[in-house]
# Entry
Amino acid sequence: MSNEEKEVLNQDTPVQDQELDQAQDSLDSVETQDQVSSETLDQAIEEAEDQVGQLEAEKEALSDQLLRLQAEIQNMRRINQRERQDAAKYRSQSLASHLLDVADNLERALASPAESDDAKAIHKGIEMVYNQFKQAFEKEGISVIDPLNEAFDPNFHQAVSMMPAGEGQEADTVINVLQKGYMLQDRVLRPAMVIVAQ
# Structure
């Protein structure tokens, strides 16, 4: 090898070293970018998982809220239906309450003795009206509470006084009915006013 060739070879070495250094830097840069990309990717995956968790929690909360609202709507429908049924069932309560005094007066008129022919005719007319009243009450589901000789029940009877029990009478038994009571279906319109044995 000639001296010139050696010189050229020696001159190429710094250039090659420089190129080698640049290649190494490029390689290091690529590795660093890969490492940064990997970290960024891991971070993005974690954020996505967090978002998925939050969305699932929100979905569960909304699903629970939906179920509660559906249950509330069902309850409101049931209550509304029951109220409509009660309104239909007890629609005549107010009118019946006003007519109870009329029925009481008709009973009192029938209890009074009729001696003359005119009085007997009037008595007969009152009896017919009273029977019509009873039929109308029955059609509307109104029944009489007449608890004579029955056990006293504060749900259906109102005790106005107490008297000592007579022969054959048990304590807490109704011995006299001062005013009949009335029921509409299963609801008490007016309790019977009674005297109870002690």
Q: What stands out?
A: DSSP finds three helices and six strands in the chain. The CA atoms of residues 56 and 62 lie 10 Å apart. The longest strand covers residues 157-163.
